[in-house]
Amino acid sequence: MIEEKMVLEDTILSLSESEFSRLRMAWPELISPCFWEDASIALQLGFLALLSFHFVKLVASLWSGRKKVNGVEKYPTDYRYDFSYKLGIICSIIMLGTHCATVLVMQGRTRTQCESTVVFVVSRIMQVVSWAITLIVLYRIRNRTYLKFPWILRLWWTSSFLLSLARVVVDVHCIVTNDDRLRTQDYADMIGFLASVCLLGVSVRGKTGIGYVSLGDFTVPLINGDKEKLGGVQRNSPYGSASLVQLVTFSWLNPLFDLGVKKPIDQDEVPDVDVKDSACFLSKDFDECLEYVKKNDETANPSIYKAMYLFARKKAAINALFAITSAATSYVGPYLINDFVSFLNNKKSRTIESGYLLALGFLGAKVVETTAQRQWIFGARQLGLRLRAALISHIYKKGLILSSQSRQSRTSGEIMNYMSVDVQRITDFVWYLNTLWMLPIQISLALYILHMNLGMGALVALAVTVIIMAGNIPLTRIQKNYQTKIMEAKDDRMKSTSEVLRNMKTLKLQAWDSHHLQKIVNLRKTEHNWLWKSLRLSALTAFVFWGSPTFISVITFGGCVLMGIPLTAGRVLSALATFRMLQDPIFNLPDLLNAIAQGKVSADRISSYLQEDELRSDAVEFVPSNETEFHVEIDHGKFRWDTESQIPTLDQIQLQVKRGMKVAICGTVGSGKSSLLSCILGEMQKLSGVMKISGSKAYVPQSPWILTGNIRENILFGKPFESSKYDKTIEACALIKDFDLFAAGDLTEIGERGINMSGGQKQRIQIARAVYQDADIYLLDDPFSAVDAHTGTELFQDCLMGVLKDKTILYVTHQVEFLPAADLILVMQHGKIAQAGTFKELLKQNIGFEVLVGAHNQAIEAVLTVESSSRTSECVVVDNETDTDTSTNQEFLHTKQDSEHSLCVEITEREGRLVQDEEREKGSIGKEIYMSYLTTVKGGALVPVILLAQTSFQVLQVASNYWMAWACPTGEDKPVTGMKFVLLIYTLLAVVSSLCVLVRASFVAVAGLQTSEKLFSKMLNSIFRAPMAFFDSTPSGRIINRASTDQSVLDLEMANKLGWCAFSIIQLLGTITVMSQVAWEVFVIFIPVTAICIRYQQYYIPTARELARLSGIQRAPILHHFAESLSGAASIRAFDQQERFSDANLCLIDNHSRPWFHNVSAMEWLSFRLNQLSNFVFAFSLVLLVTLPEGIINPSIAGLAVTYGINLNVLQASVIWNICNAENKMISVERILQYSNIASESPLVIEDSKPPASWPDVGKICFKNLQIRYAEHLPFVLKNITCTFPGRKKIGVVGRTGSGKSTLIQAIFRIVESGEGSIIIDDVDISKIGLHDLRSRLSIIPQDPTMFEGTVRGNFDPLEQHTDHEIWQALDKCQLGLIVRQKPEKLETPVVENGDNWSVGQRQLFCLGRALLKKSSILILDEATASVDSATDGAIQKIISQEFKDRTVVTIAHRIHTVIDSDLVLVLSDGRIAEYDTPAKLLERENSFFSRLIKEYSMRSQSFNNIPKLQQ
């Protein structure tokens, strides 16, 4: 019975083996020599056919007299030949020689030759002919000076490489299989293969490198003369001039590394990018692609996907070729493992030469694989850089031409996210793009090798692989949805963050900072929830795919056992190596799908933005000056802001302005004054009518727009510096005295948004900018609102009626005293020109103009009444004092308030610099940064658990593979135990190892997100608690960069990057352990090679680290410049400066590209060297295994060592790659930690020292010996201020620029802390109580009105402390009730970013309404009515006097009538009290500052009617 059973088993085994053999034979015989000879003939016929076609075409063009050769330029001079051209000649000669030798030395047929002699001879003769033609073509190129090799030649060289590779593989296979010796043909094939590899490199590079010498000067022809880089500092580009060998080895970076080792690299020491990587070239190229798509598809909105495809296809194709080569050669190792184990089993019957040949095959494949891999990764990064530069440039240019409606629909924060986050995600996708080409190659080759070894078992593996990959589809869909939600949440958070940073001073003054902090925290919670869902899904995905290779192997081996396919050690090890190779595409698939999901979402967002409405160029018709007498002409114009609104903003506009006319525009708040200027600028949508402009324009907006930079740059605004013209301009704009205050004069640097300049200084700087442009038409939107009476007069006389006397000027004004001088006055009402005429004509019409004039006259009368009551001889004094006016002006420069705190003294100390260069750490990233990150959550308790889980996974993986190698038979021997038991143990080990991955992935997700959350919370609190000085000197772009880009790194990347460092080290140790088990001698070479690797890393790190830091720092200026440009887009367009600003953006992109490009190149430089060293170690171990006598090592375990050794180069490179990558990403942690430890303001609340609930009751403010300075090393700005503001009184504060008015106000709110002395409000020392308790009990109406995105209700009552009835009452009192009632949404009427859908005057009224609602005992007015007309101003003053009659009101004023009825007036000079008394008492003293100011105001008001009018 037992014998029968054994016979039956033997029969089944023999049947299964025969079936297996048939299955192997069924596979296409790709290793047949004849197959490749036939392929060679077909290829050469194709090459010759293409050449013939090209020749016929050339003859035809010569015949027709239309000779034209693309890419060719002729130079009638001597030539210079580059290495590429010489290498092409040499290698082509070698190829010709090898084929000639093969034909001439015809040996007896070998196993590596085709059986058909005719086919073999024809193939080789055709090769000789083809290579002879190639040499002729190369000679022709020399005479024609081609800049690039012809595409036919490059295609032929690439095809020849693939053919040579196939021949070498066939030769090696035949020699190893048949244990044959090398013949002449085999040597010729190998030499030809090496030559073809060089030719492949030459064809990929493409450049011939042929130059010419002309007139004794050595010149290299430009690759793209028409797309040359923009001007600026021209640095050399080592990459652009590198030879082929340097490009392959990345040795063109050596000079930079030599410099980086000696000292930290600075930005100006980083070489330039190649011309093809410059932003200017790429921007033009992308524009051309968009234009092509637009014409091709006949659409106004071209597809961004098609444009990106056209833009990237050439470089992507080259990358794809390298990626496919790398993927294909990576499977040579698994293919040869079975043969190698077979060789070790049968050493006695095999020659040692065949063993060495096998080792050479392994090594050759690894060298080609690693070289190609480095090239495709570098190429992908380079393509990402190009795409990023093109997209950022296009997003920027779009931002400059967005229509008003489009601009309001997208906030600055959103648009900034497109530029920072979305563009980055698209460039990340470009890196994954090559996985698309590699996946089918990798899977096909894996299945081929599996079929060679396992027969039908390969189909089982295919089925399982497909199932696992298909399981990705629902996971990816969910992940894509999560990514969309994350981006939406990030947009909301960044929108709110940007708004807060812009208005931080208002938030601190109003004590709303805690409310807005909580708002951002709540938005972050929403983002956190989506991040957690995404990371949780990623952990599940990691579990599935780390376990997938073992899962596939378990099912495949199980299928083989069931089908009776024998599992020998060689087959199992080859299969395991193949599964390990399959792990890469399976791992990459979820990342690829995730990158596709993220890239699709981001591309859709950018596409949507790029398709937004633009300003219509046909809204304004430009007429040559010789064709019309009018500079501005509007005929029946109808315009609107809101495209959805049926009601036009401006209607029935009829206007003709002749050259040299002065046109004043006045009207009540919201009547359409600013809109009229905007329609002339072409900012509004034209519904009907004709709008004509003749001449250049200059524009001064109502809200000053100041660029970061020095004052001179702001005034010149792109124009060349002309000394006399410049001096005349600053004199006319009353800036000379201001410049005297600054040590650096007009080279003083201005902070972000002009933060360190007073409102008047900012206004005068932008007026000077307009004057210097020397335009034909000047559009001035309320230019005198921010300046005091004296300066306003000076500006009007010296500027408008002086240097601009021959210019056409349209100016909006609320000051009636500036109207009489106008040739034409337009009175706006409800979006229409209600009245038009001269000052006298309008007064006679008696329709509504007299209301404005009447209000103004009442104000003048109030001033004159005070003067008369103080000194009856006032009129005589006024008449007699005109000769002393000059000295008065000298002594009392001009009374104006510095609405922002002036840092003049601090600027002096820093030689004109307020905003310092961004702080940059130097040297290695400190261990404390790593420790801070690792120990943030639970003191780092999760780190050992994660490491233990990964170590367990690696140990179990090695154990399972060891078990299979040991348990399976090496040849025809019987297995050690039953295969079912072998598989059971293997399965158990695989399942447990996969569970370890699940534990590790889950803990990494938890620890990473919690760490990110804590660091974000710490940074956010630190920024919100920072003193105002921090925001004055820190551009918001730096903070936004950390809150968006750096925070994204922490949220989604940092934990994984650090984790991969540990995981790759553990994997490498596992591999070395397995290899050393077989041959400990490997350590002899491994230890010195490791030492060399460490030396390389130490050589690399200093340069790479500084490049990464520079790259991070250079990213912020791009965002900052974009934010500034968005806020001043109307001014940029008005001055026709779009091109200059776009060019500046391109320069900033290049500044970022330079360190970024050299950083990624440096990474490839290191990886290439480490790859080759690990290849050397692997080759040494193979030679060792071949050389060792039989019996010393177990062939199965040796095979296992080779299986692991195949991946040695990948693992060793990945360790260094991951360490360097983690260090680069750790810079984000370093940058966030920098802003987590900012010096804080005083506590918001001091529990032990809380003021009474009713405080302040009376509102009495006592200053006792108050001294204030902005820093310890700087002098005092306020000196010995001792006075008392009585409770429930009106106090006016006046003084010249830099006198300390604004500092005094800020001291009351403790925006600036007192150095000595104290401020006591109602017997409470304000320095002893919390900041929130202080600021929440005071009210302020600032000069620059601030509104937040949201609703009317949210802007009036952000803390939700009042009823609707109270809000409506406040709205009515501040003249806004009627306007809001007319809106359909009432209190829910939307307010867009910055309140841009409300006029400046209306925004000012909103701020007044907030104060009315707050009902504080102390109110500070910081020129609160500067932006409203005289009638509204009078009404507001009346409301303030009524509503705050029993409260303390402190007023900083420009309009003297707002101070004249004060109970007391405080005059400051040079930080000291100059005068402090009642207005009447001060006016009694003729030489008092206040007295002189009043005289100036009354003189101006009374004499304006006498200003000579300019005739038309």
Rounded Rg: 40 Å
Spatial strand sequence of the major β-sheet: 9-12-13-7-14-15
Distance between the termini: 129 Å
Structural class: alpha/beta
Number of strands: 27
What can be said about the biggest beta sheet?
6 strands, mixed
Spatial shape: elongated
The stretches of 5 or more residues where confidence is low (pLDDT under 50) are 1-30, 65-78, 107-112, 212-234, 870-912, 1504-1512
Mean residue pLDDT: 76
Report strand %: 5-15%
Percent in helix: 55-70%
**Structure annotation, total helices:** 51
Structure description:
The chain is an alpha/beta fold and 1512 residues long. It is 62% helix and 9% strand. The chain is built from 51 helices and 27 strands. The strands form seven sheets. It has a six-stranded mixed β-sheet, with helices on both faces. It starts with a helix and ends in a 9-residue tail after the last helix. The model is unreliable at 1-30, 65-78, 107-112, 212-234, 870-912 and 1504-1512 (pLDDT under 50).
